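Annex B. Sample input.
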Amino acid sequence: MKLYSKTQVGIAVVISVAVTALSIAGIVFILNKPIKAQASSNFVTPVETDNKGAVSNLGSSAQADTKQPVSPQAVPVVNVAQSSGGYSSEEVENISVYEKYNESVVNITTEVLSINWFLDPVPQSGGSGSGSIIDERGYVLTNNHVVDKAYKLYVGLSDGSRYEAKLVGADPESDLAVIKFTPEAGKKLRPIPFGTAKSLKVGQKVLAIGNPFGLERTLTTGIISGLGRPIQESSTTILQNMIQTDASINPGNSGGPLFNTRGEMIGVNTMIYSPSGGSVGIGFAIPVDTATRIVPQLIKEGQVRRGWIDIQAIQLFPDLTDYLKQAGKGAPVDSGLLVSTVTQGGNAERAGLKGGTTAVRYGSTVFYIGGDIIVSIENKPVTSIAQLYSALEDTSPGQQVTIEFYRGSKRLSAGVTLSERKK
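Annex B, continued. Sample output.
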């Protein structure tokens, strides 16, 4: 242990006091120093946005090349012009779409019939969802699964009024339906205009309005996360070309509109992918072009008439493929639809397709082998029963389609004039 004299201790104390005093003086000086403007090299040119949200530089020449990449430093993160009540251009966009069309989104509730202990039918509360007013007469577009099996339908408007509605037409294959209520005389309805999903881009901003968990006319925003998603809804139904979005879609949003920033409907919000049952940023909407195509049929006929090929088909599976090869009746493919039978006098027989001749049993199912194996319809791969329905989803009776199939090892094609699919 080192010892210090009284003189050394005194000197150390004086030095410490001096250093502390100088530090305090320096801090006071800095805090009281006037803040001066930065040098011109740090000057940032103000920016403004056009009505589409694109950034334009106020100090740039009209002849500037707009295709030139902009460095991150050239566009500062600032609050843009506040001429609209202090809102940014993006906020103004959101507010505009919501204020213009939130009253056009309705809340749909249903009643269903159940059976009590005495086997009597008893009405009880069903599900709920959303819908879009598409006509001033009270026509509403929604999802089929929102109104499926409903005993009664009710439509709630933004002003609190409630109307009983009726089912006009439904199409389970596209999961769309049209219902109708009758507003009182003089009540003005604002239909939502249809846009198109054909020009959509991943990254494009979208807005959803609906009634999640019964919270009426809720707005959520996001982007398009993916396009052309096929979603298999059942063993015979694949919803094609679905729009994937990260805009929050929850139970109750089904049937509501998905908007672009111009306030046009580009999709019908339909489902979410969620292990927990809540929104996790993966929602799906039916493209509005599907609705544009089938809504007139639903209003006019109550259903959608689609084309069909008059065959009984079996989806190939590994055991069947192996058996066909061993029996010498195979084809150079492991997937497709085996034509078990063709309807006598039907369109498949007239087109030259052939069914099987040898009966076999697989489990409880009996079918015939030796027939043609269909692999595509109109250049769309057909490897399952669901894909057969999907390939014919946008066809109509009387339309001709090209079918490609294998007969043994030969790949052939034939034109088939479609009949009407039976319900």
